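From the shared-data thread, chain only:
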Amino acid sequence: MTRANTGGSLIGKIGSYLQIFAKDPSSTAFVPLAEAYRQIGLLDDALEAARLGTSSLPHFSPGFSTMGRILGQMGRIDEAMSAYAKALSIDRQSQAALVGLARLHLIRAERDMARKILKQAEEFHPDDEKISDMLNALELPRPWAEIKQASQLQKPTPQVATLPDKAGPSDKPGSSDKPGSSDRPGAPIPTATLAEIYVKQGLLDKAIKIYQDIITQAPDNTAAQNRLVELQKQSALQLDTSVGKTDTAVGQTETGVGRTETAVGQTETGVGRTETVASKNEQLSKITAADVTQPITAETSVSVATSTPVTTPESQNVPDDQSPLSVLKSWLTAIKLGRTNV
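Structure, as tokens:
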């Protein structure tokens, strides 16, 4: 209810100041008008009213102090400082400008400069409670550094495991010659955590070795013994699985070899057939060459024609679809028979 009344009051003030400022642009009503806009959150309107007012009244210090307050709230620190400086150049004792400028230096973490400005403001306004409160606040102790240091001291310091010095098994009393002991410089200390890291990485052999070392150092460690048995079973299972995969791969390879041998046999059969055809063609070419190179006389031609009739595909009842090679063979046979009779 109070907020509603406050908002309504500010809206009413804004309406009243707007009427005054509209009738007389040189009126100082722009200062409370800009302040009302600022308080209600309309910073752009507040800045516009302050600029219009200061342009009409360039020697009115409260106008520039109001502008500095608005610009500071908008985060425009450098412009706000310039506005406060302008206000102080008009009135060096301006309480609003001095306090506003000191706050800007505090925002920038410039505490010494803010204290200096507030001391000067206190000289001009010794009874001002706001200035006194700000100076007292600057003198309060700042325990943040001590609190931070104390919190860091309370943090537990991580303990780093120290490795044994370089020394042989007989150099120290009570030294152990058992396998798996971590007397070697730089050797990892056998712990269940390290073993489980190896398990996650798939290095079961190393994890098993770590647990064996733990059991060697602490034979009553039941948890380590149980975990060792589990890892040994897991390692054996992985080994059996890998062997099965290897056997399957070998069987597939042998099958592939058998298929290759079959393909080679078929290829050799095809080569044999090709060689047989080539041999027959070679024989035929030799006969043909011999017949062609030997001249045929007219008498021979007549003798052949009279003594031995030349057969034709029609006389031998050769089918129409017989190959030309068969026909050629028939002709060559007829020629050979003719020469024999001669």
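The first helix runs from residue 2 to 23.
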